[in-house]
Amino acid sequence: MTALSESSLNMKIGELSRRCAVSIRMLRYYEEEGLLKPRRTQSGFREYGPREEQTVERIKLLGSAGMTLATIKHFLPCIRGEGHLLEPCDELRSTLVEQIALIDQKTETLMQSRKVLERFLAEVQ
Amino acid sequence: MTALSESSLNMKIGELSRRCAVSIRMLRYYEEEGLLKPRRTQSGFREYGPREEQTVERIKLLGSAGMTLATIKHFLPCIRGEGHLLEPCDELRSTLVEQIALIDQKTETLMQSRKVLERFLAEVQ
DNA sequence: GTAAATTATGACAGCGCTGTCAGAGTCAAG
DNA sequence: CTTGACTCTGACAGCGCTGTCATAATTTAC
Questions:
Q1: Considering only CB atoms, which chain B residues are within 8 Å of A112?
Q2: Strands A84-85 and A79-80
Q3: Nucleotide in closest CA–C1' contact with A3
Q4: 125 residues of chain A, pLDDT tens digit each
Q5: Which residue of A6, A84, A85, A122 is most buried, as measured by CB atoms within 10 A?
Q6: Torsion-angle region of residue A36: left (phi > 0), alpha (psi -120 to 50) or beta?
Q7: pTM of the model
């Protein structure tokens, strides 16, 4: 029987992987890095529930914002619900500001690079 | 006598490093990757001239545009003078277009990330 | 009961540089 | 000739993931 339970209360890693579109490798890696702590069956298989699924979604969200797992791990406890923040944690606030500044800096670098390339391109025409 | 020749015709790696502000490690790496082929003294020391210095400058320029050394290596022969392109090489043209598209894509990703972070930040306030 | 699918752990590789360290030879100045 | 500065080669480490492979145990399906 293929496991396709809707609100899977105890998925094994394969199903969570499918549902979250995150590779099994990465799910194990999240655990390795301390972002996920699934229960285990007697035989040692990982068991994930909705809570873990939610955590993975949060990780994906923050990850898509360019945060490293280490940073995400740090602030995972500050996050709740559908991406809403829990504690008005000052540290989180300043980290967010830093991250944004970092992004702006990277963007600036990319714009510089683009200029250089455009200049080259203009010369090849 | 500290070597500070103006138009150094045969600099050793240390001087080129200073003049180009590129680490010795990287100069050797450029060579390893086939971007630079300095002469050698009898004892095996690398000797660089203005030509090599110019090459390094080009590498820096293209590198600042986000190109990998492999890509730079590929098109180094197409470049001349102060960053002016030599052969109106079609391949170079399309590579430049690709690189620009890549940059735009990265920029787009960064903007997405920024949005996510901004949204978070707004919620912490 | 047996084969196929799934899981477990651990380790190695790769991206594209970049630093650093070790061991040895070379060059310059005093 | 000795010392210190410089160079040589080769190799390992790290960034932050991410894939993959090997070996073994477990579970599932027929």
A1: 64
A2: antiparallel
A3: D28
A4: 444 445 679 999 999 999 999 999 999 999 999 999 999 999 999 999 999 999 999 999 889 888 899 999 988 877 755 545 556 678 888 888 988 988 898 898 889 889 988 988 888 77
A5: A85
A6: beta
A7: 0.80
